[in-house]
Amino acid sequence: MKTILITGGAGFIGNHVVRRFVRKYPDYKIVNLDNLTYAGNLANLKDVEKAPNYEFVKADIVDAKHMLEIFKQYNFDGVIHLAAESHVDRSISSPMEFIFTNIVGTMNLLNAARITWENNMENKLFYHISTDEVYGSLGELGLFYETTAYDPRSPYSASKASSDHLVRASFHTYKLPVVISNCSNNYGPYQFPEKLIPLSINNIKHNKPIPIYGKGENIRDWLFVEDHANAIDLIFHHCKTGETYNIGGNNEWTNIDLIRLLCWVMDRKLNRPEGTSVQLITFVKDRAGHDLRYAIDSSKLQGELGWKPSLQFAEGLEKTVDWYLANEDWMNNITSGDYQGYYEKQYTKR
Ligand code: NAD
Ligand code: DAU
């Protein structure tokens, strides 16, 4: 039986990866290590928490000594590292958490893997999950390739870029078997409602303003979260170590067009007359240093590993809306707590 560490498994993407691995690979023991920050929620994993091949460990990746103890105790065969501070707006108001978790935390895991695997690195893999934001911001044309020079522009993306460099440095310096993937914007069930799509779904439902930064002209390349989990599965099992793979939806939307589509879907789902929800759109102060456009070229992953996105955006968005409307308790549990304080600060004291 192989023992696989998944960090950040209680978060948005992590829970989909944990669920997939627990169900698809009964001969793997999946250890989900998560510190349960505001973004980590064990309710996301209720359906697999009793599986015999699943174990949860509450721990902070910033604690180097504890990480080494855990690596020695479990002798992991592989690591899929998702734990991170992930929200750009929070990185602007409180950057230090991003430095600790994303940079120091990643280095702690790399060190722990190197020390415990020192005598036999064969068949081991340290898989670092990263973002397209490390490449910076595109103009109207062009795509991000695996070879695009790094140009991060927010504290979040700079901390992720830094962690990517440390992962590659560990490959070159210590021969640690690593792989990195850089993915575009994910959407789908269990995403924390600080991010554009779930925040807007929740606001539309409660007839609250939908805050659009600037003029809503910024462009993102959206991918359904389960397609990301599928890519992670393929890369984990079939990658060439030392490589980087870009993952993207080939699905670019300006924020304003995306929100208009979402309003149309929500009107139908909530039996409101068409054109009701768009009236909630409210243009607010722009995000500082707001990257204009992200767009990924994923032809390496498609060509080498046969991956492709499974869902058209209209279908994925509808599935997502259905999930949020059917899981009101999940949303209410989040929005009734500390999140209220964050929301007030971010949107009402401008
Ligand atoms: P998320 O914020 O929903 O979840 C992060 C998880 O990490 C949470 O469960 C949190 O409790 C845990 N965590 C945070 N700090 C920790 C610490 N110090 N120790 C242990 N656990 C800690 O994030 P997400 O959106 O699921 O993103 C997961 C990963 O994927 C991140 O590395 C992010 O950079 C990357 N990524 C995200 C997207 C996206 O669109 N969401 C796209 C590309 C890449
Ligand atoms: O590209 C991958 C990245 O996508 C991940 O690395 C990040 O972890 C993830 O959070 C996401 O970053 P973005 O900043 O693109 O996502 P967010 O949902 O915060 O914002 C999407 C776009 O919508 C962005 O242009 C900012 C805008 N926006 C966002 C919010 C929260 C608004 O206009 N209003 C809002 O209230």
Condensed summary:
The chain has 350 residues and is an alpha/beta fold.
Structure write-up:
The structure is a single chain. The protein has 2 domains: 2-187 and 224-247, Rossmann fold (3-Layer(aba) Sandwich), CATH 3.40.50.720; 196-219 and 252-293 and 312-346, UDP-galactose 4-epimerase, domain 1 (Alpha-Beta Complex). Helix content is 43%, strand content 17%. The chain has 12 helices and 12 strands. The chain has helices at residues 12-24, 64-74, 88-93, 96-117, 155-174, 196-205, 225-238, 255-269, 299-305, 313-326, 328-335, 339-347, and strands spanning 2-7, 28-34, 54-58, 78-81, 125-131, 178-183, 185-187, 210-213, 219-224, 244-247, 252-254, 281-284. The strands form 3 sheets. A 7-stranded parallel sheet has the order 3-2-1-4-5-6-10, sandwiched between helices. A 3-stranded mixed sheet has the order 7-9-11. The protein starts with a strand and ends with a helix. The mean pLDDT is 96. The structure holds nicotinamide-adenine-dinucleotide and 2'deoxy-thymidine-5'-diphospho-alpha-D-glucose. Residues 8, 10-14, 34-37, 39-40, 60-62, 82-86, 101, 105, 129, 131, 160, 183, 185-186, 192 line the site of nicotinamide-adenine-dinucleotide.
